[in-house]
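Hi R.,

Here's the chain you asked about this morning:
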Amino acid sequence: MSAPKVAMVLAAGLGTRMRPLTNDRPKALVEVHGKALIDHMLDRLVAAGVETAVVNVHYFADLVETHLKVREAKGLGPRIVISDERAQALETGGGIKHALPLLGEGPVFVANIDSIWIEHAGAAVDAVAAAWDPETMDVCLMLASTSGSLGFHDTGDVFLDDGVVRFKDPGETAPLVYVGVHICKPAITADGPEGPFSLLPLWKRLAADHRVHGVAPDGLWMHVGDPDAKLAAEAKLAQESSGEG
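And the predicted structure, written out as C-alpha cells:
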C-alpha cells in the first residue's frame, strides 16, 4: 500500500512531567541533542514521504506556531496546518476528531512528539506504511520491545500474533510497547464524545474485531517524558553519532 501523505502531529500536551524545562515552552520545543522534539518527528515523517502535517496546539501555542513558520521559511517540509486547541486540549482521540476537516478522507500517520529512536535496519516509519492494509485493519501501530526500550511502560502494552494486536489484560506483562507513531483511518474518532477523549478505548474496541495491527521494527526507542529521560536520550544519540552505538 502507498504511504499516507498526511500526518497528524500531537503537540498540544502540557508536558507537566518535563518541568522545569516546560516552564517557558511547550514540550514540543524542548531540544534533544540540539533539535526540538517536534523537529525530530517532522523530519522522520518527511523522510517517509509525508507532505502535509496537521499539528494541534494548546500550551504555548503561539511559540509552536512561530517555530513551525520559521521551519517552513527555511524550506523544510512538510507543509504545516494548525489545528487550534487553545480553548481546550482535547487529548489524542479528541484532537484527531477536532482535526477531521483538515485531515482529508484517507488514512493518516499520527505521531506523538516525545518518541525518539535509533534505527538498526531500515526506516521504521516506512515499515509501518509497508504493513498498512486498509482492507484488514483500521489502525497499524509502531511497536518496540518492552525490555529493549527506554522510558515506556515497563510492563508493556500489547502482544502481536501474526501482525494482529492484542492488548494486555490487567496483571499481564506484554512483550511490546506502543512507541508513539501509527497509521489510522481518522474517521474512527468521528463517533467519539465531544471534548477530550483518548484513543486507547477506541483501539481496544477495534482490537476485539482484529482491526488493530502492528509492526515492531528493529531499533532503540526512547520516550522523552521527563528531564532525566531527555539526558538519557541525548547520551544515546551522542554515542550513536560518534560511531560507538
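The longest strand covers residues 176-184.

Let me know if you need anything else.
M.
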